[in-house]
Amino acid sequence: MHLFVITFSGGAKLIGATRMSRWIGHWGKLCSLLLISIMLILIGFIIFKGLPTLGLKLFFGDTDPLAAMMGQKPVWEGIWPACVGTLTVVLCAVSLAALPGIASGIWLASAAEKRAQKVFSLAVDILAGIPSILMGLFGFSLILVLRASFFPQANVSLLLAAFCLALLILPYIACATQNALSSLPKQLTVTGAALGMTQWQATYRLLLPQASPGIMSGLMLAIGRAAEDTAVIMLTGAVANAGLPGGLLQRFEALPFTIFYLSAQYQSQQELDMAFGAALVLLILTSIIFTLLAALLRRRNCNIFGSAKSLIKETMC
Amino acid sequence: MILVVISGLMLFAVFCFLIWFSLPVFLTETSLVFSLQWQPEQGHFGILAMVFGTLSLALISTSAAFVIALGLNSFCLLSRRRWLVVILRSLLKFMAAVPTVVYGLAALFLLLPLLRNGLQLGSGYSLFAAICMVILLILPVICVMLDNITTPLWQQYALGAQALGFSPEQTYMRVILPHCKVNICGAALLGFNRAIGDTMLPLMLAGNATQLPSGVFDAMRSLTAHIALVIATDQGSEVYNSLFAAGMILLMSSACICLLSRSLVGRN
Amino acid sequence: MMWKTCSVRLMAIFTLLISSPLIADELSAFDKMSGQLNIAGGTAHIPVMKKAARNIMGHNPNIRITIAGGGSGVGVQQVANGLVDIGNTGRALKNKEMNLGLNSFAFAIDGVAVIIHPENPVNDLSQQQIIAIYQGKITNWQEVGGHDRQIHLFSRDEASGTRSVFSKKLLKGAPLAGNANIVPSNGAMKTAVSQDVAAIGYSSVGYIDEMVKAPTYNQIKPSQEACASGEYPVVRRLYMNTKGAPNGLTQAFIDYIYSKQGAQLIQASGYIALDAKP
């Protein structure tokens, strides 16, 4: 086959191209092999170092686990407060970002005002690309301004960190919603209109349920992003020692920040072990989210086909 | 509708805020900020070395990641071992979920000792270490985008190209790649943006020295790490103000990249 | 050596035993209190603050004490803005900062000393040598009596009080070489130096233990005693700063640091306790 091509087109250029083409095959194999082995080494290293530390002591230190969980006794030398802090801040951020994000997504997908949409989607795109530390910087200066003007009580806190994280993940949710809605078959809207639904009814009763797996996967992605981000919370309220989060307006501990803090300045082998333990816990957390996401995506594919078929059946009847 | 307006207003607020804070810095102290020297004790507050550090980090890691991503992408399309491809694809998606601090931690105790003791390359804290990890960070971004673009194209053209007598490798190099040149550039830009914006990896691995790196094994400081370090200083001082200049440069560059990639994709 | 550590441990146990009846007394000030106390700033202070917080929160769980590092700059900035109740600094307040209405409480004396890896054979560094090293004029350990290795410089971030003391009192204002790696805290400095045979850094004397080695400075060993007597010149005070006069929980915490038990915590962290200002 090669011979055929060469004799057919002739010329040295194609011989070079053939060589180049063969080269890309080998290059691909090399890259894949390298990548897989590097990732195996990295993840294996974290598991190797973190696994032996997993246990009650890692989470609660010397405190009695039950008392610590109920928040009766402060935990020292344990990552339990950090776990709770991370979960709280992520939950807050997602609940803050979910509604505006989905709403913007719906608006972007509906073809109403072209110009405003263009500007808005550009803004969403830019926001999605903004480095996360700038979000932290924004939150920090926001608090300083608030203190100087309206709310002298404002302080860096869990709420602020959640707010900044919400800004960070809002574009992800908006984009996912938009994509999920616009990938639905056009007939759905038409059918809705034919049945005498208002646009709002059609969106709420028809489109959203159909697009929900897509939106859910967007939310999952957003949760993963919020759980791993360190730069934002570093500037907006995460501290090294705070105990369990006491309220929305107080400082908190978080897993990623704990890992960063301990890895840079561990004073004993035990603290270093804690860093690896915390890293493993965070890794497990994010991979659970990832697995859920993958499962959702798989279900979505079936769902769309299934529901589309049933819908066609319905309309035919 | 109200929610949309709210989120729009919030986006607007973020932009205005950063610009408003950094404007005075640009208006009054341009000569101070735009110089190469950073010696706060001696009154030099130049952040150009950090700008250069960020650029070299992002450029080198993006181009390396790009070449690797092309290889991976070709492997995903061409390889006959489909199970390996499935593993590779899910690994890439999984990599997108790995927290950056975990990469940083692993590199701190695997890569740095290797550079320091094994290869005798300085203290180990270096541009090189940061580049290695940033490549891992942005690989999934570029790869997943490339995969999304090239897979439909491959299904469309593979048979026809084979009928014309192309080998699969030739199809990839001569048909698929030229066809989606623009989109590939878009993917690379996205990766570039991510590389510029990452904070934790340069902060943990690059040493944060305020010099122009003269080689990849020198320590350097990125703009993002500069912000993370300098936010600790007292407000109103020149050191503190340089923070907003750095923030502004980051914001501008990421906005520009975003516009560029949009116009690229839009033209297609 | 064994004997020494053993006896130190024994002494520690004894002091604990002796002081345990006292603990109840000095902590009883916190009995009726509740609420949150935020502390941020100097990283040299963290061991003391952490131990105190542990005792207080163990005594009365209704009190929450949060501790953040960040450096002296953070301490001043956040306490002046009212973001924290106590902002720690490892240096005296500058004139500009005095005008913000801050009250300073010096509670300990600390030295700043050069640290190197324990396996590094260099035992003494003069001031000239240190200045030349940090200016980038001496780049090999051989030139100061060590092995043939390139010197890896480590320095602190711009917000650090340790850095400003080191720069002023030891380097005498000489500019720092640009290739110095920057670490964000005393703890991180110690960790970084303990991992690198060719490293040189500087940290608070309280942080020096078997993980790193402090070479003598102009033939003087940087120890607690030498700092207290003034024999070792690169010393500073550690301050707690409050905005306006402290009250309530903040006052109680400061009193606790100045108490006998507080002094023990300061001692155990490697510093020399100071008495309260009359």
UniProtKB/TrEMBL annotation, chain C:
InterPro entries: PBP_domain, Phos-bd, Phosphate_ABC_transporter. Residues 34-260 form the PBP domain. GO terms for biological process: cell adhesion; phosphate ion transport. Residues 1-24 form the signal peptide. It comes from the Bacteria. Its main location: periplasm. The keyword Transcription regulation does not apply. CDD domains: PBP2_phosphate_like_1. The keyword Transport applies. One of its GO terms (molecular function) is phosphate ion binding. It is found in: Periplasm; Secreted. SUPFAM superfamilies: Periplasmic binding protein-like II (SSF53850). GO terms for cellular component: extracellular region; periplasmic space. PANTHER family: PERIPLASMIC PHOSPHATE BINDING COMPONENT OF PHOSPHATE ABC TRANSPORTER, PHOSPHATE-BINDING PROTEIN PSTS. Involved in the system for phosphate transport across the cytoplasmic membrane. Belongs to the PstS family. This is Phosphate-binding protein.
